[in-house]
Fold this protein.
Amino acid sequence: MKKRSEPALPTELGRHIIIDTDPSPDDAVAFLVALASPAELNVLAITTVAGNVPIELTSKNARKALELAACADVPVYAGAAAPLVRPLVTAEHVHGRTGFDGYDLPEPIMPLQSAFAPEAIVDMVMSKPPGEVTLCCLAPLTNIALALAKEPRLAARLKEIVLMGGSFAEGGNITPAAEFNIYVDPEAAARVFNCGAPITMIPLDCTHQARTTTQRLEKLRRLDTPLAEAFYHLLKFNKIFDEQKYGWEGGPLHDATVIAYLLAPELFAGRQVNVQIECASSLTLGMTVVDWWSVTGRPANVKVLNQINASGYFDLVIERLSRFPLSDAADG
Ligand code: BDR
Ligand code: CA
């Protein structure tokens, strides 16, 4: 196993990142694209949380994908098994019982790190100079809220939080009003959205434009690598649910937008606005209340991206996935 050395972040875009995730395939594509981009991104760790499936499975799926990519040296920390105050809601109806249905990957051998993910996040961020670490959040925000509670200076220390979650005009995907990641742990989301760190939110408005059409999946498959073949089948399984639900061709490739935004922000457009999280109403629980027209006078706390260049996004994702297996040079 190759040992990763810490890159010097040579480019203007260079960042240290921590990826907090609940793998399903779109999460895994996100962290693989990041790992294939060592000139721009240094992945300090992957932290897992309960979400799409319970924590044991999200932690297992993360390691399955890393081993498939020959990246077993990336540390994986398991985090919260349940939201802050509510019972866990999962999404097996989308991703299957394992969260990774559609292609059988071997049981992982690489170990989980011993530390609890929120504590590891605090340690990693606080051990770097201020403004160096970006949190990439692809899942319910429980681990991040716990980290903020453990270390009140954490928010001021971050460069940015970039998250996939919420919705503005698109409506919800788990209730009429709420997107899954925010709905699962709205109290955690409320804590994070008001923490004071710069936040970029990539909502369903954006990710629903970025769909795994047959043409895009076939292009991925033509890479003709074991990794591409696995993700071709995993994403093909995923899109069955979305195609039936929405009547579209393809399913949204949600989470890789977070990494694509760091690599190519010009593919996205949006607006700096105030966003608050509904935590009380049973009808609209987990709704991201986006003050797009600035009618409240509340100060902007989030950059909401509602447009994406979908073909540019898939070109980027497929080009980065074509880099596997990573060469020594690309491996950092
Ligand atoms: C979000 O929910 C999960 O199923 C996806 O991985 C994504 O993070 C989309 O609502
Ligand atoms: Ca996710």
Q: What stands out?
A: The chain has one domain: 15-331. Residues 15-331 form a domain with the Inosine-uridine Nucleoside N-ribohydrolase; Chain A fold (CATH 3.90.245.10).
